[in-house]
Amino acid sequence: MTITSNAGSDLSPQTEMVTVVVDGVAIEIPKGTLVIRAAELLGIEIPRFCDHPLLEPVAACRMCLVDIEGVPKPQPACAQVVSDGMQVRTQLTSPIAREAQEGVMEFLLLNHPLDCPVCDKGGECPLQNQAMSAGRPDSRFEEEKRTFPKPINVSAQILLDRERCVSCARCTRFAEQIAGDPMLELLERGSMQQVGTAADQPFDSYFSGNTVQICPVGALTSAAYRFRSRPFDLVSVPTTCEHCASGCSLRTDHRRGTVTRRLAWDEPAVNEEWNCDKGRFAFTYLERGRVATPLIREDGELRVASWPEALDFAARGLAAATSHGVLVGGRSTIEDSYAYARFARVALQTDNIDFRVRDSSDEEAQFLRAAVAGTAVRTTYESLEKAPAVLLIAFEPEDESPIVFLRLRKAARGGTRIYSVGALATRGLAKMMGTLIPARPGAEGSALAGLTEQVRADLSTRGAVIMVGERIAGVEGGATAVLELARTTGAAVTWVPRRAGERGALDAGALAGLLPGGRPLTDAVARGAVAAAWGVDSLPATVGLAGTTMLQAIKAGDIGAIITAGVELADFPDPALGHDAIEAAAFVVALENHHSAITELADVVFPVAVVTEKSGTFMNWEGRPRPFAQTFKDALVMSDAVVLGMLARAMDVPIGASDVSGIRKELGALGAWAGERAEQPNTPPGRVVDGDYLVSSWRALIDNGVMQEGEPYLAATAPAVTAKVSPATANALGKPEQVTVTGPLGSITLPLQIGDVVDGVVCLPLNSPGCAIYRDLGVRAGEAVAMGGAV
Amino acid sequence: MITSGLTPIITEHWDKPDLYTIEGYRRVGGYRALAAALRLDPDAIIGQIKDSGLRGRGGAGFPTGMKWGFVPQNDGKPHYLVVNADESEPGACKDIPIMLANPHALVEGVIIASYAIRASHAFIYIRGEVPHAIRKVANAVEQARAAGFIGENILGSGFALDVVVHSGAGAYICGEETALLDSLEGYRGQPRLKPPFPAVAGLYASPTVINNVETIVNIPYIMDRGVAWFRQFGTEKSPGFKVFSISGHVVRPGIYEAPLGITMNELLDYAGGIRGGGRVKFWLPGGSSVPMLTADHLDTPMTYEDMAAAGTMLGTGTPMLFDETVSVVKAVTRWLEFYKHESCGKCTPCREGTYWITGVLEKFEHGHGSPAEVDTLVNLCSQIAGRSFCALGDAAATPYPAALKYFRQEFEAAMTLSADEQFNPVASYVFAEAATR
Q1: Contact A229, A260 (CB under 8 A)
Q2: Each residue of A635-649: pLDDT tens digit?
Q3: Which residues of chain A neighbour B173 with C-beta distances below 8 Å?
Q4: Domain at B22-225, CATH class
Q5: DSSP code of B276?
Q6: A136-173, pLDDT tens digit by residue?
Q7: What is the pTM of this model?
Q8: From CA A608, how far away is CA A595, in angstroms rounded?
Q9: Cβ contacts of A193 on chain B, cutoff 8 Å
Q10: Which of B343, B351, B387 sits opposite A103 (nearest CB)?
Q11: CA of B194, closest CA in chain A: separation in Å?
């Protein structure tokens, strides 16, 4: 566990130090440190249940009682701060402490069922372990145990076995203090005290899985993992989460080639000890619907092919085309993205490459080239925590980067002011105690020009941050306005993409006009240096096509052959355009791990590795490399980079290293661009669309994303899918229970929800069950829909 | 020093049928002290209360003036006075009668105390099971408000105060002052971690003084009649008078106001002695949470210090007396059932310990114990006392060891004989006919 938070990692010269003696060993530590942390620093483990270094002390379980000289009663080490000269004696040297702890342990076991042999926690259970280390050899209790029906659901995912609970209140404190979702509470009293929820309010928190992990007994279990394995049968591998750009450290546990569970792993600089439920539970996609062998299209049908045959087929097809494009979905590792970037420029001689399989714009591409790609780490989780103010634009952290949300909430609890520019004061914003700067969808950029003096003053304070989400691409003039605001206030700008691979793909050069390390393609020096490093005479010198323009060119037949990597057609804001483009392309090579709409259209499909089958690096939003190792060491599936390397050889244009360490070496040698950066965008604010109802929309954390497939318990904890409007808008609609929303492609009917929304705006989830606005309505955020009460 | 005789002061006019009205209270000098106090500097009032030596009447006996003095001044935060009227201690019945008979004395005390600690909001937290007391106090507050004693610019002093009467919801733990604060804030009543202490960060994280009803009711009398007058009653360390509520097998159970330092024997005389000329078997000076005493201690002065020396506490000063018809096993079992039922569940020793001990005691009561368990229970109590989160756990661990000290043979007999076999239960009923004894 993290022992930094209370142990005073912040050792500024002013920190007052005190000397405390624990079990006869003196240690000098910052004043205010808790006794239990001081003991940990000395390697003395005091048993505990309720104590958690990231939660406020509660001193409820009484397991950590120690003997302090001059104090008549034993004191809880988890709540007692050290003072100079304090003499602490733990169970190791004090019979009083030892006896007190044994007494508490005996009490804890009174009503604890002896179902360890069938308990998920058995084998990794703090109660089991500490009963051995700090308990009596046997119990004197002969009365009847208190029983409860077991287990009960506190959410679709989380099950509660109240008999096993030791009332440590870690889960309830986590829910209240860390996640800000206080749906879990202790109910009743005495030995009937139990964790519970209100009848109509399940513990549908995005972070609920953390409670299972910090539960010191087997009281909280997840539906996904319950009864699936014993911890001692599992092999554990540290890894990095592939779901979003937060970059959490995870531990993947597997058995017999199958992932059984994932846990948040300890990374104080990034996720502390938490992760979100998507990162924890969404992993069945790793095995479902996998492409098993290379496939080639023959007589209109895909058929299984050998690797040499498929590579040859693909090489010939690519060579036959005169123009090419590369679509790298936002899920690639830096190493794979780099291979695509190099393959496009060297093997295909094209700069038509983009990693943005989502709403995108040229202005955004300019912004990313000018202000993000290849920049040094500046804004970090830690600096967020210390920031005086953070302004969010086109970014809903709870949904789009949940660990950023947790850190912003922590920051807000410490006094950071949070502002969010948008059309809705979200539940996340409330949990960050933030202030909404109302803006109609599409007018977020203009809203920055009209900030109040207070907000501008806050953003002008040293350490202030502007966090920009990927949705800025849908706001014409938005990125321009952000850079202008940063210039005039001095606030740092940080871009928080949603997908794990986007920041790395940007730095690897998988975007038209951009070479690795943030080098502008148009800069001859930069281009020359990369060409030299890649051992070629020249690289394409004109900026290629990207985004919608590239799709239109493919559809028009201007681009003949394309390579796609992890592309979900439904993710394009115009899915039909995506589909038509791929269908129109003369030759499509798809590197995919799953069968999807795109493999149905491809001419060649190469199976590639999922994250457990390869090693690599995700770069999180901070720009911090988050390397991970291969979970399944004997996996035979090859990474994208390896397949591209083979394809390049088949085309007779070798592209250098295709193994992770080789690519890392190449990227390291190139380094970041120190020369002049690409030009900043200068797009005037777009006209806000006319219409009674404008759509505000983003992807909910738990939605129809393909990487969440096959996890019904997770899906059931997703927030309700509703059409959210302001009270005035609801009145104008006649306050129907259900509302029908109509766009160019069709209508959907959803429950009407009233919230703190800008008038004339309807907030819809972008891709949730019953509400996929690109597909069902044919609109994107900022566009107009019609609305009416449904019968 | 007056340490004997009845000294009706708080209870002096309880026989007047309209004492509960503002007119009735003013007729006997009510609100005179308030007018005088508001002309004093708040610190002068704190100084007088310190000088009076008044100690908290809720059970702990902490010096009231010192408690007030802990409130930081000029800290820019709101200050609060909270009156603990959650009288729930088994055997204690003094605060509720005070509120029923003379609610205005409480209100007057609240106003003076609030002025002294610079609080502009006071809360009276009354146990929810006594709606008649809540109505009386709420009515008194409204009358005081109408008379200008509560509100803006009280009696032209510039001092403003609002008083809120709040009803508890039936939890003994809410008599623990920090649990009371949580309950008052709308949370589930469970004790808070200290520090910070309420004087620094209490209600709504602001400096708060929490006083018992009887403590507060003393204030107008001290302010009106002076420190010297007050200190003529009681002893050096336990000055003043006390509203003793006497219950159990006495001829005339009820409220007896007497100086601290009076003996139980003298009080017992006033209460008509033990019914039917019987003898005291055991008695508790201040609620079930204090260790029991026997007939040998009836001459111990009822002061904080003398009770401590006798191995018990004055507690709430509400003696319960039991005659020789009573099974101590049964009495202790009832108390432990109470503590088990009222344990808030926050900390392990109290939550689990009361569950376990009660289970064993219930076996004893039915004649099913084993000899080893008699001592195991002592050990279990020692695993609770001093290790629980709050004093409720300590209280739960109190009755059994004290009872065992004096009546070990009775517990040992419980291995074979149920409590009802040892003692005819009907004989112990307070309403039992003399013939059945």
Answers
A1: yes
A2: 999 999 999 999 999
A3: 189
A4: alpha beta
A5: G
A6: 988 899 999 999 998 999 999 999 999 999 999 999 99
A7: 0.95
A8: 11
A9: 344-346, 351
A10: B387
A11: 9
Instruction: Give the pair of three-digit tokens for residue B307.
Output: 């009770």
Tens-place pLDDT, residues B228-238: 999 999 999 99
CATH 3.30.70.20, chain A: domain bounds: 116-128+137-286
CATH code that applies to domain B241-323: 3.10.20.600
**Does the pLDDT value for residue A756 go beyond 60?**
yes
- Which CATH number applies to A693-789? 2.40.40.20
Candidates A34, A48, A51, A62: best to mutate against B (most CBs of B within 10 A) is A62
Q: Which residues of A touch B (CB under 8 A)?
A: 57-63, 65, 72-74, 79, 100, 103-104, 106-108, 110-111, 140-141, 143-144, 146, 166-167, 185-186, 188-193
Q: Which of B348, B376, B388 sits opposite A108 (nearest CB)?
A: B348
- Closest partner CB to A143 (pick from B346, B348, B359): B359
Model pLDDT for residues A237-283, shown as the tens digit of each residue = 999 999 999 999 999 999 999 999 999 999 999 999 999 999 999 99
Percent with pLDDT over 70 in chain A: 98
**Burial category of A251 from C-beta neighbours within 10 Å (exposed 0-12, middle 13-18, buried 19 and up):** middle
Contact B405, B358 (CB under 8 A): no
* Residue of chain B with shortest Cα separation from A50: B347
CATH number of A17-110: 3.10.20.740
Cα–Cα distances in angstroms (integers) from residue B430 to residues A235, A608, B245, B377, in the given order: 70, 86, 16, 29
Percent share of chain A, pLDDT over 90: 95
Q: Is the dihedral of CA B204, B207, B211, B215 positive or negative?
A: negative
Alpha helices by DSSP H, listed for B203-303, are 213-225, 227-231, 264-270
A295-358+502-670 has which CATH code?
A: 3.40.50.740
Nearest to B24 by CA among B133, B104, B135, B134: B104
User: Which residue is it, tokens 């797009």?
Assistant: A683
Alpha-carbon distance B12 to B98, whole Å? 11
Q: What is the pLDDT of residue A565?
A: 96
* CB within 8 Å: B343 and A190: yes
Topology (CATH level 3) of domain A116-128+137-286: Alpha-Beta Plaits (3.30.70)
B275 closest CA partner among B245, B306, B251: B251
CATH of range A372-496; options 3.40.228.10, 3.40.50.2300, 3.40.50.1110, 1.10.10.10: 3.40.228.10
Nearest-Cα residue of chain A relative to residue B355: A191
What is the interface size between A and B, counted as CB pairs within 8 Å?
95
pLDDT (0 to 100) of residue A1: 42
Euclidean distance between CA atoms A351 and A514, whole angstroms: 9
Tell how far CA B156 is from the center of its chain.
Answer: 35
Q: Of A184, A191, A192, A233, nearest to A208 (Cα)?
A: A184
Q: What is the pLDDT of residues B345-393, one digit of tens each?
A: 999 999 999 999 999 999 999 999 899 999 999 999 999 999 999 999 9
User: Using the beta-carbon criterion (under 8 Å), do B389 and A60 form an inter-chain contact?
Assistant: yes
Q: How far is CA B111 from CA A789, B164, B395, in A?
A: 57, 12, 32
Judge if ipTM > 0.90: yes
Asked if B346's CB is within 8 angstroms of A62's CB, the reply is no
Span A369-376, mean pLDDT? 95
Could you please report the per-residue DSSP string of A581-642?
Answer: HHHH-SEEEEEESB--HHHHH-SEEEE---GGGS-EEEE-TTS-EEEE--SSTT--PPPHHH
Residue A462: CB atoms within 10 A of its CB come to 8
CA A178 to chain CA centroid, nearest Å: 16
A131 neighbourhood in chain B, CB within 8 Å: none
Partner-chain residue, chosen from A62, A108, A189, that has the shortest CB–CB distance to B345: A189
Q: Is the pLDDT of residue B85 over 70?
A: yes
